[in-house]
Amino acid sequence: MIEVAFSTGDRPPLIPASIYALGRNYAEHAREMEADPEPVVFIMPRTALRPGGGRIRRPEGCSLVHHEVEVVLALGIGGSRLSAREADDAIAGLAIGVDLTARDIQARAKEKRHPWARSKGFAGAAPISALAPWAPWKRRWKEIDLHLSVCGTRRQSGTLGQAILSPVETVMQLSRWFELEAGDLIFTGTPAGVGPIQPGEPCVAKSLALGMEVAFELWVP
Q: CB-based contacts of 58: which residues, under 8 Å, 6+ apart?
């Protein structure tokens, strides 16, 4: 069973339900991908999660994996058509995570106008740190930073305040489209600076504000 622990140790681990992810939620990243800065959503299987990071096998048929560091919301309460207050109350925790994308597989699928679930949903595609409680950040969420380094060199850096949708707006919007559940995780999008990583290169995603990080590297059999 996949579980994501709270760093405080004062509550039981979260057992993930659905995993939602936002694309184009940071305007600069949308522009670097030559896309409109308008948030879109996709869904990943639970087996994509890799709590604590570690070694992640590059998916079969892939030679180009990109990193995308993200702040992740964890829901303690579900529901649909949530108000702003209900959405705020639904958020239980925050983590730092990475959306690893098999970019060549995604590009081939897009060319054929096919779904690109394989590029985002392979095993280990979503390494994630432990969870920090949401309560201390309800009014300070714009201060939450996120960074990703490869071989000790910083590649991505930003704050949650640069996102188009706030955490509460994100939960509200998703609750209009889906029946949310306790245990759902929401990857909230990535700032500019996405790029390739090679097998064996040590990667670290972190948030200094949250005091959270997750380290990982790709490997090829």
A: 65, 102, 199, 218, 219, 220
Contact 191, 157 (CB under 8 A): yes
Arch. (CATH architecture) of 19-219: Alpha-Beta Complex (3.90)
CB burial class (10 A; 0-12, 13-18, 19+) of residue 42?
Answer: middle
| C-alpha dist (Å) from residue 134 to 73, 81, 161, 183 | 9, 21, 15, 14
Answer yes or no: pTM beyond 0.85: yes
Number of H helices, E strands in the chain: 5, 16
Q: Tokens representing 14?
A: 């979260």
What pLDDT shows up at residue 23?
86
- The pair of structure tokens assigned to 132 is 């920090």
State the 10-residue block means of pLDDT for the chain, 221 residues long: 89 93 81 68 96 97 97 97 98 98 92 93 97 96 98 97 95 97 97 95 98 98 88
Do 126 and 19 form a contact (C-beta atoms < 8 A)?
Answer: yes
List the domain boundaries for the chain: 19-219
Q: Which residue has the tokens 């949903």?
A: 121
Length of the chain: 221
Dig out the tokens for 158 from the structure: 């930003």
Confidence (pLDDT) at 207: 98
